[in-house]
Design brief:
heterotrimer, A mainly alpha, B alpha+beta, C alpha/beta, A: Arc Repressor Mutant, subunit A, Tetracycline Repressor, domain 2, 2 domains, B: Cytochrome-c3 Hydrogenase, chain B, three-stranded antiparallel beta sheet
């Protein structure tokens, strides 16, 4: 096996852990399980992450950066807020479909087990890259006059709660159609709710 | 014969169109130049922005305009501010008056007296007095001039007990300066060595003490009082009329169709010294000058009293409703006398704003047949410097008058 | 042996356009005015003892320093002359032109324009001899120290709007006694309390307004933000803006960010700061334990 950098190795560990957590559940999976899956020693794994909690925090930061990066690209496009909503919804659902472990970790582990994250991931600390981009999307939409000015959280809750809810239903196998099927209607609903 | 003179050091200038008859001033037309359109500037603005804009009517009495705006807004909302805010505003407003009176005495009156032969007095002691008063305002208002710390509903500041002590120390320093240089309370006016004693003697010796008499009608709207020939009655702003300008940009203010005097003389009529002077010399130059200067002493007492009364545990401000409309009126006893702001608004936006300033009363440009207080006071005077002294005894504010 | 020679005085003429006289009075508040005036010969000042009267300004042949207060506006008269005529006359004669206050600098509340600028746009009088000292009013220290520099023959580094960088290179936010509340994003939600930052809700413009108000203080004792009044941006070309007592936000995010701070940087930092609850800053300052 070709020698890979520490950073790449770290990423491999995180990708593997995400899949394991999503398949088996966060509390069921031990550091040893992860090491085994990767074919590395537990001792070596601890060189990368000092504890399972440390790994958990890095994971949420990793996901947040990944999502933030994509929304940032959308934010930089010279398109209307309405079109941006469409792109964000599409990106979110496609990610949920192609890499469900990312969104599931966010919804089922990060949001549902806040006590794991209380030290070092307070408030928006570990999701800041993602939330910052959503803030900028809203701010620019209002500034341009396309979206209605309101409290950030009432808008954020509507947008993200809606998307999260749909992904949750998908994860539970309760959606009669593929999630892409809903992109257009949901984008329109969000736009109608937020427009000026 | 007609001659136009420029009266300066009156917060801008006034053009005085003198009409002479047999070597004496027979009539004067008063022209205030330089209009800025403050009232128009306020139309269409959010109500609270007036708190920032109106102090900028004037660099020497802007704080009075601030308080007038705040009171007008509170009257529109039919609200009373708390006791703490009221005491703090009383302190800062009094200090603005003190600041004004020091500057007026040392920068406006003394140079003219010097022209008449009074020994030269450098302005710096007066400025020191004004500066200390400004510092006290800044302790509560953040800065002087041009703070907007008094907001609709109260004041923004939340002073600590040490701030109160700082202010108290400054008041004592101001008091020492005043009693050491200007006037000592309770001492006979014509005997002492202090500045006001010397000025009083000079005016008397110079034979000008009784010049510049008004109509014997005084308005003290801050206390809702109209005093005519010693008789007090309840005053109301409803009886004020605004007369269009005959010359320049200032409009004239009348009360019950007549011209009245506003200012320290009007509000200190119950000061035994002032009462005695009016009795003896009439409501002229001497009484007017002494009333203004000795008002510093009274104001210092009031500041002391308020500093002792403030209960720091009370809230500084009460909630002010947003988006209100209707009519509000704010009356303030400003350095030069009664100042009135009136605001009409709808949905939190100013539709109309009018400002009535003291100089519009005192220096109204009336007619030869019906002269204003200052026009009457000037009648019969020969010398230009004395005429200027009479005018300046009213403490004119040119920028306020045209606003 | 030390020799004491009396320093020469430079002549100064203080001319007012459309103004409230606020800068005149602000300057009079300078605590060491006497020492400054020792070095100046006052040809004309609206209140200080002067060599000439306002009606005699045409007789003034030379003036080293012209101080202009107030905006340039049609119809303003000084003495028997149009202010604009006098202004042009003395700009020509003066070696230095100090524009004090935002009206003289940008046009401000009362001017159709300032002397060298109309807002941020240069006028034909955008000249190297102009020093702009905006503020409503200008702080006495700004006027006094700038005058002193001129008296001493020193040049002050100025920015593109001709403002001395040593004054306007700072923001009003620098030195604000409420800085801790800004850092940890603890908002003041109502006026009248000594705790909380005024930037998020109550309209404070200090983070993007230039001036060293909170470093040198006003009247040597305090500042607007120090007592709990929002900075109203009085040194800036767009003064006064509207709704000065509430912060303009878009979906809860401030419409303007601290000077030179990119939006993403700002939101990231505040998001982080807001994620922590600092007990001490949430409490009243002198609350008993």
């Amino acid at each position: 096996m070709a020698r890979i950098s520490r950073e790449e190795r770290k990423r491999q560990i995180m990708d593997t852990a995400l899949i394991l957590f999503s398949r088996e559940g966060f509390f069921e999976v031990t550091m040893a399980d992860i090491a085994q899956e990767l074919g590395m020693s537990v001792g070596n794994l601890y060189n990368y992450f000092t504890s399972k909690e440390a790994l958990a925090k890095e994971l949420i930061l990793y996901i947040s950066k990944l999502l933030g990066e994509e929304i940032r690209k959308i934010n930089f496009k010279t398109i209307s807020a309405r079109e941006k909503i469409g792109e964000i919804v599409r990106f979110y659902f496609v990610t949920a479909k192609e890499r469900p472990e990312l969104i599931e970790y966010f919804l089922r582990i990060y949001l549902a087990n806040r006590e794991i994250f209380k030290n070092g991931c307070e408030g928006f600390l570990c999701v800041s890259p993602f939330v910052t981009e959503i803030m900028i999307f809203f701010e620019e939409g209002v500034r341009s006059g396309e979206l209605r000015d309101q409290d950030f959280f009432s808008a954020f809750g509507l947008f993200m709660g809606y998307l999260g809810g749909m992904v949750f239903l998908m994860g539970e196998g309760m959606l009669p159609n593929e999630i892409d099927y809903y992109i257009e209607d949901i984008s329109e609903n969000i736009y109608q709710a937020l427009k000026a | 014969m007609k001659r136009i003179e420029i009266l300066e050091k009156v917060e801008g200038e006034v053009f005085l169109h003198y009409h002479y008859r047999q070597g004496r001033i027979d009539h004067v037309e008063i022209e205030f130049p330089n209009y800025r359109g403050m009232e128009r500037l306020l139309v269409g603005k959010p109500l609270l922005d007036a708190l920032v804009i109106t102090p900028r009517v004037c660099g020497i009495c802007g704080h009075s305009h601030l308080i007038a705006t705040a009171r007008a807004l509170e009257s529109m909302a039919s609200m009373e501010i708390g006791e703490k805010a009221r005491e703090i505003r009383r302190i800062t407003l009094s200090c603005e008056l003190i600041q004004n009176h020091f500057k007026w005495l040392y920068l406006v009156i003394l140079p003219l007296l010097e022209e008449l032969g009074f020994p030269k007095v450098p302005p710096f002691q007066g400025l020191q007095g004004a500066n200390i008063a400004g510092k006290i305002i800044a302790l509560f208002g953040g800065q002087y001039p041009h703070t907007s710390y008094a907001i609709a509903g109260g004041v923004v500041c939340d002073p600590t007990s040490l701030d109160i002590y700082r202010a108290s120390i400054l008041v004592e320093e101001l008091h020492r300066l005043y009693e050491g240089e200007v006037q000592r309370g309770g001492e006979p006016l014509f005997d002492g060595k202090l500045l006001l004693n010397r000025i009083a003697r000079f005016l008397l010796d110079h034979g000008v003490a009784e010049l510049g008499k008004g109509w014997g009608r005084f308005l003290h709207l801050g206390a809702s009082e109209a005093i005519e020939r010693g008789e007090r009655r309840e005053a109301s702003t409803e009886k004020i009329e605004e007369e269009p300008s005959r010359l320049g940009y200032a409009t004239n203010l009348l009360y019950e169709g007549k011209y009245w005097e506003v200012g320290p003389l009007a509000r200190r009529l119950s000061d035994p010294l002032v009462a005695q002077l009016i009795e003896e010399f009439g409501d002229g130059l001497l009484s007017r000058i002494v009333a203004r200067v000795s008002e510093i002493g009274w104001l210092l007492e009031e500041v002391r009293e308020s500093l002792g009364k403030i209960d720091l545990s009370q809230p500084s401000t009460l909630p002010f409703p947003t988006g209100i409309g209707g009519y509000g009126e704010g009356i303030v006893e400003a350095p030069r006398g009664s100042l009135i702001h009136r605001i009409w608004a709808r949905d939190g936006i100013i539709e109309r704003y009018t400002i009535w300033t003291p100089t519009q009363f005192n220096l109204a440009n009336g007619t030869r047949e019906n002269p204003s207080v200052a026009q009457k006071g000037i009648r019969g005077v020969k010398e230009g410097t004395v005429a200027a002294l009479i005018f300046r005894s009213f403490d004119i504010c040119s920028v306020c008058t045209t606003h | 042996m030390r020799t004491s020679t009396k320093p020469s005085k430079l002549s100064l003429l203080w001319l007012q356009g459309a103004t409230c006289n606020g800068n005149t009075h602000s300057f009079l508040n300078y605590p060491h005015l006497e020492a400054v005036l020792e070095r100046l010969e006052i040809l004309y000042h609206p209140l200080l003892p002067s060599r000439y009267r306002i009606g005699e300004l045409e007789e003034v042949e030379k003036c080293h320093i012209l101080v202009v207060e107030g905006g340039v506006r049609e119809g303003v008269k000084r003495g028997n002359r149009e202010f604009k005529e006098l202004l042009e006359l003395f700009i020509e004669k003066a070696q230095w032109v100090l524009c004090v206050g935002s009206c003289a600098v940008y046009g401000g509340l009362f001017g159709e324009r300032g002397v060298a600028l109309k807002g941020e746009e240069p006028t034909p009088f955008y000249l190297p001899k102009v020093i702009n000292i905006p503020g409503c009013p200008a702080h006495p220290d700004w006027i006094a120290t700038t005058l002193w520099a001129v008296v001493e023959g020193r040049e002050l580094i100025r920015d593109h709007l001709l403002r001395p960088k040593e004054i306007y290179g700072y923001t009003v936010h620098a030195g604000c006694p409420r800085n801790e509340y800004f850092e940890w994003k603890v908002d003041a939600r109502e006026f009248g309390k000594r705790e909380g930052c005024l930037f998020y809700e109550l309209g404070c413009q200090a983070p993007y307004t230039r001036g060293n108000c909170n470093q040198i203080l006003w009247n040597e004792v305090s500042s607007k933000t120090g007592v709990g009044m929002p900075c109203i941006g009085c040194t800036e070309p767009d003064f006064p803006q509207e709704n000065l007592f509430s912060t303009k936000t878009y979906m809860g995010i401030p419409a303007r960010f601290p000077l030179g701070v990119p939006k993403r940087a700002y939101l990231t930092m505040t998001g982080v700061a807001k994620s922590f609850k600092i007990e001490r800053l949430e409490r009243r300052l002198f609350e008993e334990d």
